[in-house]
Amino acid sequence: MRRTTRLAALLLALVLALSCTACGKQKALVAGTTSDTKQEQTTDTRKDDTAKTDTAKADSKQDAAKTGDKTADGKKSGDEKKAADEAKKAEEDTKKQEEAKKQDEPKQEVDPDTGKDKYQTDPVPEGKPAPVEPEDTTVDQTTTYTCTISISCDTILNNWDMCDESKKPLVPADGVILSSTTVSFSDGESVYDVLQRVCRENGIHMESSWTPIYNSAYVEGINNLYEFDVGRLSGWMYNVNGWFPNYGCSRYALQNGDVVNWVYTCDLGKDVGGGYATGS
Questions:
Q1: CA dihedral in degrees (31, 32, 38, 42; nearest 10)?
Q2: How far, CA to CA in Å, does 93 sit from each of 88, 100, 266?
Q3: Which of 72, 154, 241, 255 lies 20 to 30 Å from 192, alpha-carbon distance?
Q4: What's the rounded Cα separation, in Å, for the pair 104 and 129?
Q5: Distance between CA 108 and CA 85 in Å, rounded?
């Protein structure tokens, strides 16, 4: 009986011991699971924080990029506005210069009784330069421009039978005494000034005389070809930019880029397109 009681007590103690062991393992397992769960949550939290930080950095970069674009656009817009303002100012300055130039342009004073100016010149067509009196002109040698000039007598070739025999050897085969040449001149110089210099520099003969009634030099001969050498209506004329002025070459003030042609006429200008300048 006592043995049975001891055996039962031992069995009970063993069962209790086993139960405690199992309970301890379960608690340890639960504790380990809890620890792992907390660790995983911490890791996830760190990942989330890192992701948020990366997102914040990316957003910051985008904001910086946008700010940079806005700055660049602002600078570009500012540069464009500055360029537009400068172009507008330049245009306004040009207009002012043109207006000032127009005001400074000489005015032809025509006598209403005679219909001519004091040097017997008919009114200059509208849009064409008025004559400038040599005595009222100041040459500015510090300001230089360019023009082109040529000298031709090819009309003589079409009137060969009328040409003085002694002058025929002086006529070039193509009628060109000086081909179109670009030359420099000073502000205020006249067509006559440039003709004198060009002929001198190129060894071309030129003779002229002063005619007070017209207040201008009159070109009598170039290359030893004179007026009346090819009939009573022959002589030298000049045109500027295709227009034959109705006044002397000393009174024509050259402008930058002008094209001057000296031509020999055998029919008082009609054969060279300048008959209107002589009133014919």
A1: 150
A2: 9, 10, 47
A3: 154
A4: 12
A5: 39
Q: What is the pLDDT of residues 67-123, one digit of tens each?
A: 666 666 667 678 888 888 888 888 887 677 656 555 556 777 888 888 898 998 999
Q: Phi first, then psi: give them for residue 269, nearest 5 degrees.
A: 95, -20
Residue 228: other Cβ atoms inside 10 A: 11
Cα 106 to Cα 251: distance, rounded to the nearest angstrom:
11
Q: Return d(Cα 22, Cα 25) in angstroms, integer.
A: 5
pTM of the predicted protein model: 0.64
List the alpha helices (DSSP H) in 105-178. Answer: none
Distance separating alpha carbons of residues 166 and 261, to the nearest angstrom: 25
220: how many CB neighbours lie within 10 A of its CB? 15
Regarding beta strands 140-152 and 259-265, do their DSSP bridges make them parallel or antiparallel, or are they unpaired?
A: parallel
176 strand-pairing partners: 152
Q: How does 83-109 read in b/e, with b if 16+ C-beta sit within 10 Å?
A: eeeeeeeeeeeeeeeeeeeeeeeeebe
Taking only the tens place, the pLDDT of each residue in 226-241 is 999 999 999 999 999 9
- pLDDT, tens digit, for every residue of 109-146? 888 888 898 998 999 999 999 999 999 999 999 999 99
Cβ atoms of 229 and 164 within 8 Å: the answer is yes
